[in-house]
């Protein structure tokens, strides 16, 4: 069987009543900043906050009554798990989700909250997959693969139909690539509706299997990536064929670029996005010249980023922008020094966040003290002005971007 545009159209009709038609909106600030017309398909607002619910539902609707009664099983530590759990419970179908040992508790809890039975097994996804297949065969459960299933891919592709209905003038659409189910479905839909549209795949450098294949080099080695939703070492063979046929270009982004892009989505558009759509925006920023004068769509495929990780990402982003900076002073160990420094910082319009006054573990002379002050400022230019003012006042100070 080969995925066709008709398959995606039928999936669209099948899941439409139980799927959110997520907005496709202009990213006003990012468009202004980048100098392009950028439109975001907000699948982070979908049920379970990710596009995976579409494919899961489309697959569940194809089950026989016997299969529904026995139940389904999936292997996932993320968005696929929650998509299957949510719609299976809604349809009255028992669901079991196998997750690797060490899966964060919040992911387990969210999956259980949607009504699934969670089973922990294996140290990684590959270990869990074989266990899941064995359990499915032993208990007569229907296995729902996260991406190597044309019915699932057809469901994911329905967001492509919506995108062109909402923004018919799009010239190019950027889609993250992990296992390839999303881009296979979306590419089939977009090319079926508008053959001249350009489709660009976005990968994390650590998992750039498609790009490696195109460049005839060794595949990715993997590693810890912010874009964990697309951390797949090899898309399925069926999806690879569709990518080769319908996707015009595949690019990758490194971890720093992905992190910066996720911060941009949050700070500029007030959107919580995970690393996978961050890879998409990073690719756009990295190859900005080719997008000039075009109407660009980006699939914001999910928003399930860990809250602790997000808080750290925000702080790091503020540091990169110069909005949080560490000032290090070498001062006379005499009364009034800290008061004068605080006054100058306040008068400049900056704000003191933290003060560390060192008298012991330091390299300055005995009658000196080292003072570290973490401040909030408007931007790097503001920090530069403040440092100049402090130096004019006689203080020995330097600014660093680490906090």
Low-pLDDT residue spans: none
User: Sheet bearing the most strands, described?
Assistant: 6 strands, mixed
Q: What's the overall average pLDDT, rounded?
A: 93
Tally of strands: 14
Task: Count up the domains.
Answer: 3
Question: Number of DSSP helices?
Answer: 16
- Helix-strand category: alpha/beta
Oligomeric grouping of the chains: single chain
CATH class of the largest domain: Alpha Beta
Query: What's the CATH architecture of the largest domain?
Result: 3-Layer(aba) Sandwich
Tell me what the structure shows.
This protein has 403 residues and is α/β, with parallel strands linked by helices. The protein has three domains: 215 residues, Rossmann fold (3-Layer(aba) Sandwich); 90 residues, Rossmann fold, CATH 3.40.50; 79 residues, ACT domain (Alpha-Beta Plaits), CATH 3.30.70. The chain is built from 16 helices and 14 strands. A six-stranded mixed beta sheet has the order 1-2-10-7-8-9, sandwiched between helices. It is elongated, with a radius of gyration of 25 Å. The model has no long low-confidence stretch (mean pLDDT 93).
Give a short synopsis of this structure:
With 403 residues, the protein is of the alpha/beta class. Helix content is 45%, strand content 19%.
Question: Helices and strands in order, then pairings?
Answer:
Elements (H helix, E strand, L loop, with lengths): L4 H11 L8 E3 L1 H7 L2 E6 L9 H9 L4 H6 L1 E4 L3 H12 L4 E5 L5 H9 L3 E4 L4 H15 L2 E2 L6 H17 L5 E5 L4 H13 L4 E7 L4 H6 L22 H10 L2 E5 L1 H15 L5 H12 L8 E6 L6 H14 L3 E9 L4 H11 L3 E8 L9 E9 L3 H13 L3 E5 L3
Parallel strand pairs: 2-10, 3-4, 3-6, 4-5, 7-8, 7-10, 8-9
Antiparallel strand pairs: 1-2, 11-13, 11-14, 12-13
Helix pairs in contact: 1-8, 3-5, 3-8, 8-9, 9-11, 12-13
């Amino acid at each position: 069987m080969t995925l066709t545009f008709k398959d995606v159209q039928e999936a669209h009709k099948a899941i439409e009543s139980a799927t959110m038609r997520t907005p496709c909106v202009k990213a006003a600030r990012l468009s202004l900043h980048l100098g392009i017309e950028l439109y975001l398909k907000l699948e982070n607002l979908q049920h379970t906050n990710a596009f995976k619910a579409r494919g899961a539902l489309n697959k569940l609707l194809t089950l026989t009554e016997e299969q529904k009664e026995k139940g389904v099983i999936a292997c996932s530590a993320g968005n696929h798990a929650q998509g299957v759990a949510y719609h299976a419970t809604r349809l009255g179908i028992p669901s079991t989700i196998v997750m690797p040992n060490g899966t964060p508790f919040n992911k387990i809890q969210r999956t259980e909250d949607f009504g699934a039975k969670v089973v922990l097994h294996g140290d990684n996804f590959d270990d869990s997959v074989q266990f899941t297949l064995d359990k499915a065969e032993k208990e007569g459960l229907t296995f729902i693969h996260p991406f190597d299933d044309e019915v699932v891919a057809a469901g994911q592709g329905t967001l492509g139909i919506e995108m062109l209905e909402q923004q018919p003038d799009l010239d190019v659409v950027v889609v993250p690539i992990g296992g390839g189910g999303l881009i296979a479905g979306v590419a089939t839909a977009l090319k079926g509706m508008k053959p001249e549209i350009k489709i660009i795949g976005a990968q994390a450098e650590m998992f750039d299997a498609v790009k490696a294949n195109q460049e005839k080099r060794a595949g990715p080695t993997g590693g810890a990536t912010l874009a964990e939703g697309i951390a797949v070492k090899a898309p399925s063979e069926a999806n690879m064929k569709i990518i080769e046929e319908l996707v015009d270009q595949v690019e990758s982004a490194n971890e720093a670029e992905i992190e910066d892009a996720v911060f941009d989505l949050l700070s500029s558009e007030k959107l919580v996005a995970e690393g996978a759509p961050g890879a998409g925006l990073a690719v756009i920023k990295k190859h900005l010249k080719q997008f000039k004068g075009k109407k660009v769509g980006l699939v914001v495929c999910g928003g399930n980023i860990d809250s602790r990780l997000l808080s750290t990402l925000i702080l790091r982003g503020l540091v990169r922008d110069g909005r949080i900076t560490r000032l290090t002073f070498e001062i006379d160990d005499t009364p009034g020094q800290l008061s004068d420094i605080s006054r100058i910082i306040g008068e400049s319009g900056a704000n003191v966040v933290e003060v560390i006054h060192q008298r012991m573990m330091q390299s300055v002379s005995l009658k000196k003290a080292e003072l570290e002050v973490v401040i909030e400022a408007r931007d790097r230019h503001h920090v530069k002005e403040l440092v100049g003012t402090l130096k004019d006042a006689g203080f020995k100070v330097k600014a660093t971007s680490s906090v």
